[in-house]
Amino acid sequence: MIRLVVWVFALVLASSLAHAAIVEHTFNVENISVQRLCRPQVITAVNGTLPGPTIQAREGDTVVVHVFNKSPYNLTIHWHGILQFLTPWSDGPEFVTQCPIHSGSSYTYKFNLTGQEGTLWWHAHSSFLRATVYGALIIRPRQGHSYPFHKVYKEIPILLGEWWNANVVEVEQNATESQAAPKDSDAYTINGLPSDLYNCSQDGTYQVKVKAGKTYMLRIINAALNAQHFFQVANHTLTVVAIDAAYTNHYKTNVLVLAPGQTVDVLLRTNQRVRSYYMAFTPYRSAPEIASNANMTRGLIVYQGAKSKKPVMPDLPAQTDTPTAHRFYTNITGLAGGPHWVPVPHHVDEHMFVTFGIGFTVCNNFSGGCTESTRPLSANMNNESFVLPRGKGVSMLEAFYRNNVSGVYTRDFPIRPPVEFDYTNPNISNAMPFAFQIAPKSTKVKTLMFNSTVQIVLQNTAILAVENHPIHIHGFNFHVLAQGFGNYNATRDEPKFNLRNPQIRNTISVPVGGWSVIRFQANNPGVWLVHCHLETHLPWGLAMAFEVENGPSPSFSVPPPPSDLPKC
């Protein structure tokens, strides 16, 4: 029997290798001048394009990307949603898995795509450079395999972005120095174009030309920095077939909502009258009392043979329509038994209850000075405000590999908040002792045994304001067991867990003033960042990290670092 199993495994492995390919790219990161909104603007981009190049690959392929940093900024590239199993040196978050690629230097990222299909993306993981350094990463089924739905006529990536009439690095620096919210972006874009809603942009609207009676797949990516968005195509029903590169049961809807970092694959049937239709993004503002960019953007779906009539505009939800957003986020279920489906592990080894939200920084530690009415903003998880270990000489992953973490990070991230209270009641939260409103700065991780199963309750707090937060976990996908509003209550909410076909994600949008329960298996050794994917919130400290111990053999351990790994 053992020989038979080994023989079958060898056949599968040989078949996999026979159908796998090496997909190789060169990324030249440099400053270019781009004309948008009536003016030229110098931006940092990859290979002179906005968005950057799309990586096209198949499940099982190996991706190799040579990054040459010709820009004036130190940076890294993160491959958002790629599991990086045993390739943690290629994950990308600066000072976590690597030091930045210095200006004038290079680094080669190499990773495998086994067990993943769908739409992911890549982006800079250094400061606000993500605003212009990003692109799609599309993983199709391997040769000889097909999608778990009917063949589509054409696939179209749709990337939502943000545009500033400013140097985005300076935008972040100004916000960091003042510890205030950054300047709002000046426009939202679709595939780099702002649309006819903005000045000097009548010819700057992204268009898709389609044929009637066909089925198209839209691969939609929210690459914006700080805003969730509703998305609609006028007069058309969309069928969701995947989220975050994980297949779903078909879900028909006329409106989507995506948080920054999330992706949604939908089928669009061109079954309407021959004319032009707008597809539009408008922000979902879960906390209307918090000032934010309320602009929208749109593109065109143009039927072949359409006359020059005024395009039809969708009837978009109100930007504060939380019920519509929550309905979309919670109605999707995973395609149990479909390609690459992972069943929910039932035994849980580690239980964590993680509160998160916005608070303040101690005025005495703020060089700009402040008063009681202008206290600088901060953010935290379980009352710990995360700080990247800059200036330590090594990344967190290097410290882990060398087994010398002293002075780089500590292993005492709390599994519960220090105080239990009525987390989402603003009256109670604002009456909390001021010391609890100011979280200490730290670089703490939670250590996990290899292959242990982890369940996390993510609980929003109202200490300053409740808000819908997208939480991204590097190195893992996770099952979303349940979501709700208010405070999580195990007695009431555990019976609601979907253990049969929950959605699988890498970025979860935790409901405004609410909670989400996620579960995953810690089968990927290394150091993995967990953070809010609103770009303002990581510098403020809304993050932590997992340190996953090595497995029982070198085959399940962090490999040696590559020879060209950047130095700090």
UniProtKB/TrEMBL annotation:
EC numbers on record: 1.10.3.2
CDD domains listed in its UniProt record: CuRO_1_LCC_plant, CuRO_2_LCC_plant, CuRO_3_LCC_plant
Gene Ontology CC terms: apoplast
InterPro entries: Cu-oxidase-like_N (IPR011707), Cu-oxidase_2nd (IPR001117), Cu-oxidase_C (IPR011706), Cu-oxidase_fam (IPR045087), Cu_oxidase_CS (IPR033138), Cu_oxidase_Cu_BS (IPR002355), Cupredoxin (IPR008972), CuRO_1_LCC (IPR034288)
Enzyme class: oxidoreductase
Start and end residues of each Plastocyanin-like domain: 29-143, 155-306, 412-550
GO BP annotations, alphabetical order: lignin catabolic process
Family to which the UniProt record says this protein belongs: Belongs to the multicopper oxidase family.
Name of the protein: Laccase
